[in-house]
């Protein structure tokens, strides 16, 4: 006799992606729909909270419908709804939480609240388990995105028979998140928004030793990060070298014409710009990898998880693989699709909470600064 699977609908709206997904038994992704708002925020060089909320309102219904359609289930087949409660933009979160509550009420299904950061941890587990790898816990997890750069120690604990994780914060950024630094540097150089993917592609053509950016010295907690110094060093470098201005102007004009491909940007970038990008990226990647490995050593774990939008970075992946192998750690990344914000990770994180009966009612509120514990 086959045991019926549990279907969880995940809903994510914490920043600039409206996402919905259906995941079976917390491990098999049946659908994963993401409506990105990049085209809207691009003109402002960053996420505009009010515009994000309005766009979530427009997208939430069609995105959920599409997730259910692609999963080939009906709303009535769902066992629970898992929604991101925080952290994130309060207006954006409010749309997902309100919709999740109403849907749960209308369908008479349990509602589960998920911490967005816990979602990023589950994105790693989801794919590791699907590909037959079972990470050894405890692990150290680096969550690195446009909104977060934070290190946690992740342990497993049993809760009413369902395996859940507990989290201890080891360190985090004191100023900019790493993805934010990528986006700001890309903005200074007129490379378009978001900056991470384009800098990633162009940096591969430059000399990472072209310019020396010193590693940030962290007083107090050595597992904290700071990226505003590197970002400011790039700014000073551009001010000191006015010859960058003509190519910046040319790229601004190209962006205004809608030409934003990596190839178009590369043709408008001098070797000096490619070296600057490669050196910036090397400094950020070195810092992320060095502090994470040191945290893994101090915490005596064997597994390292890396998740969040910046985890899609090619050099970061290669550097982690190489260093982890040398130092005897196993490193786990989600695929690029699950690295950036998505709702499959929210459904997966909600599953053990659903099993252990941690259900919410209509009083559930979003929380912009929800801590991960
Ligand atoms: O996780 P995410 O989709 O949203 C946030 O929660 O922020 O991450 C988006 C961030 C942006 O800052 C973007 O520039 C960065 O991730 N990013 C990258 C790459 N792809 C996205 N940064 C570096 N290299 C990449 N390949
Ligand atoms: Zn995120």
How would you characterize this protein structure?
- This protein has 373 residues and is of the alpha/beta class.
- The chain has 13 helices and ten strands.
- It has helices spanning 38-41, 49-70, 90-107, 116-130, 178-188, 195-203, 228-240, 245-256, 262-267, 271-298, 314-327, 336-339, 344-355; strands at 7-12, 17-24, 28-36, 80-86, 111-115, 139-144, 149-159, 162-172, 303-307, 330-332.
- A five-stranded mixed beta sheet has the order 3-2-1-4-5, with helices on both faces. Strands 8-7-6-9-10 form a five-stranded mixed beta sheet, with helices on both faces.
- α6 (195-203) crosses α10.
- The mean pLDDT is 95.
- Bound molecules: 5'-O-[(R)-(carboxyoxy)(hydroxy)phosphoryl]adenosine and zinc ion.
- Residues 116, 120, 145, 308, 341 line the site of zinc ion.
List the helices and strands and how they pair.
Layout: E1 7-12, E2 17-24, E3 28-36, H1 38-41, H2 49-70, E4 80-86, H3 90-107, E5 111-115, H4 116-130, E6 139-144, E7 149-159, E8 162-172, H5 178-188, H6 195-203, H7 228-240, H8 245-256, H9 262-267, H10 271-298, E9 303-307, H11 314-327, E10 330-332, H12 336-339, H13 344-355
Parallel strand pairs: 1-4, 4-5, 6-9, 9-10
Antiparallel strand pairs: 1-2, 2-3, 6-7, 7-8
